[in-house]
Write a sequence for this structure.
């Protein structure tokens, strides 16, 4: 009984929070407001998508969460601790393929395990488990440029997850993939998400992808980047409890709502 | 061809002039004086026809010289065979370039990776690279003596400053996404430098060094002229003095071949060093 209760507790607890977050870039001395007063909460195990027009600050937001960029005001909190630097409690997958080209698949995954497993043999074993998990067991000794884009992103996911982050940050990870590969990767990601019960922040500009995957969608409006809506998606996950049926009537309606929201989110300064 | 310039006379019969030989090229004035004095002495007058000096030997002569340059013993016992001269040149290049790399590569990478280092070192290097390396010749001889050390120093000076700047730039060009990916994977500064920056720039660094090695060869000629002239440059000046232009061209061709072959070899080796740069294996 107690265990069930604590699990419910932790599932409902806030894993990641944006609190009055603002970001001003200085371009040739001129301040440029990129993000304004963003507050939102993401619970443990939630799959959250962030959508918005290009240039509205999605990448900036997730980069601040990763610790690659500093907030100008407010900040990002992971388990109530302010993020200041990158750390292994947050894994990141980039849109641009960013595997280290000079390392093999296995060595790429081993990179983030150096502190946890100083012993190389143990580290290798751990990495292999992750490579197998993303279904690339036979490619462990390949170099990234010998792999297709989809395979490279699988490795990138394995590499990000190997150190055991609490949050997986993904910045348009599948945008560069062809449609077929993308839909396979979407399913694959959901499987991993289910299995690990990890919190996922997933940026996309593809609304269909957002509705297909997310528990909750944050809608950003441009100039300056603001959070204009938080849309919980309550369509049941009909396919193996993973993806939703994108041809169902409910999907259609939510998709239209979301499109309308985005169309309304015009720049403030115009 | 008659009528063109032709400042020389090609001897066809030496006549009474003792030091003339058939086929020898002599100056017109000298020929006339010698002919005059031979006539006055009542000896046979030398015969010859106008000719041009031979700076450009025929291809087959050069081809022969490519072989004979190696088989001709040195004029004096203290002098070197051709292959010894070549080897000597190569060792000068090797040591000069090695010292340059030992200092220039780490400094270049540090300049490229850390802004404070670059701000400290690069203004000075930017300034220093405009010193023409040959200008250090006399100084190098005064400090390092007349043998190989000042020559190695000239190669070093000629390549070091460029090397630091080129490598610093190559380092700066490393895609930030690798550094950022490493940061999200918990890399500290040392790990960033050793496991990301260094391997990340390695193929480009290797290409830079190949180009810089070409520069080292251009400084070789200057380097070998200071102090006691040596190596392949000594051979070339010596042969030019004897007007053995076929040998001069043979030496130039050998120089070119050494450069070309070593670069080809280094390129091949590069492919071995950096297997990740190979194209995909057709396995998608
Ligand atoms: N390092 C930077 N310096 C200056 N401006 C930046 C920088 N990074 C992003 N921006 C600006 O901030 C805005 C948001 O960019 P970004 O977060 O990349 O948007 P998105 O990912 O939604 O397309 C853009 O207008 C962009 O030009
Ligand atoms: Mg973006």
């Amino acid at each position: 009984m107690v265990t069930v209760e604590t699990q419910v507790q932790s599932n409902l607890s806030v894993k990641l929070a944006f609190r009055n977050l603002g970001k001003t870039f200085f371009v040739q001395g001129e301040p440029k407001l990129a993000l304004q007063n963003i507050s939102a909460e993401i619970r443990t195990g939630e799959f959250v998508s962030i959508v918005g027009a290009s240039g509205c600050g999605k990448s900036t937001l997730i980069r601040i969460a990763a610790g690659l960029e500093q907030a100008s005001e407010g900040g990002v909190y992971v388990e109530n601790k302010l993020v200041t630097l990158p750390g292994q409690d947050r894994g990141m997958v980039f849109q641009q393929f960013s595997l280290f080209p000079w390392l093999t698949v296995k060595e790429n995954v081993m990179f983030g395990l150096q502190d946890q497993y100083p012993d190389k043999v143990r580290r290798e074993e751990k990495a292999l488990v992750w490579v197998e998990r993303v279904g690339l067991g036979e490619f462990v000794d390949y170099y990234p440029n010998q792999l297709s884009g989809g395979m490279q992103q699988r490795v990138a996911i394995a590499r990000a997850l190997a150190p055991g982050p609490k949050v997986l940050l993904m910045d348009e990870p599948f945008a560069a993939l062809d449609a077929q590969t993308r839909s396979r990767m979407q399913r694959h990601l959901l499987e991993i998400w289910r299995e690990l019960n990890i919190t996922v922040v997933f940026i996309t500009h593809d609304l269909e992808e957002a509705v297909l995957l997310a528990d909750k969608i944050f809608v950003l409006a441009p100039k300056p980047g603001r959070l204009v809506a938080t849309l919980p998606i309550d369509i049941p996950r009909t396919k193996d409890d993973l993806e939703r049926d994108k041809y169902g009537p409910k999907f259609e309606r939510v998709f239209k709502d979301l499109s309308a929201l985005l169309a309304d989110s015009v720049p403030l300064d115009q | 061809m008659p009528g063109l310039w032709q400042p020389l006379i090609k001897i066809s019969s030496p006549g009474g002039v003792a030091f003339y030989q058939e086929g020898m090229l002599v100056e017109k004035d000298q020929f006339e004086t010698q002919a005059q004095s031979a006539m006055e002495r009542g000896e046979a007058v030398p015969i010859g026809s106008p000719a041009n000096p031979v700076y450009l030997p025929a291809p087959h002569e050069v081809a022969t010289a490519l072989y004979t340059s190696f088989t001709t013993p040195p004029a004096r016992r203290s002098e070197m065979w051709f292959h010894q001269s070549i080897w000597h040149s190569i060792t000068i290049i090797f040591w000069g370039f090695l010292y340059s790399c030992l200092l220039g590569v780490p400094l270049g990478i540090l300049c490229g990776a850390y802004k404070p280092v670059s701000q400290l070192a690069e203004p000075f290097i930017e300034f220093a690279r405009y010193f023409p390396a040959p200008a250090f010749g006399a100084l190098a001889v005064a400090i390092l003596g007349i043998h190989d050390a000042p020559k190695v120093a000239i190669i070093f000076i000629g390549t070091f400053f460029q090397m630091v700047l080129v490598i610093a730039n190559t380092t700066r060009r490393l895609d930030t996404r690798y550094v950022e990916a490493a940061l999200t994977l918990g890399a500290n500064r040392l790990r960033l430098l050793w496991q990301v920056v260094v391997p990340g720039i390695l193929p480009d660094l290797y290409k830079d060094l190949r180009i810089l090695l070409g520069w080292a060869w251009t400084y070789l000629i200057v380097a070998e002229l200071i102090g006691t002239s040596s190596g392949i440059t000594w051979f070339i000046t010596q042969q030019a003095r004897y007007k053995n232009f076929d040998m001069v061209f043979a030496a130039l061709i050998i120089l070119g071949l050494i450069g070309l072959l070593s670069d080809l070899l280094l390129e091949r080796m590069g492919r071995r060093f950096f297997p990740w740069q190979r194209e995909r294996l057709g396995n998608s």
In short: The mean pLDDT of chain B is 86.
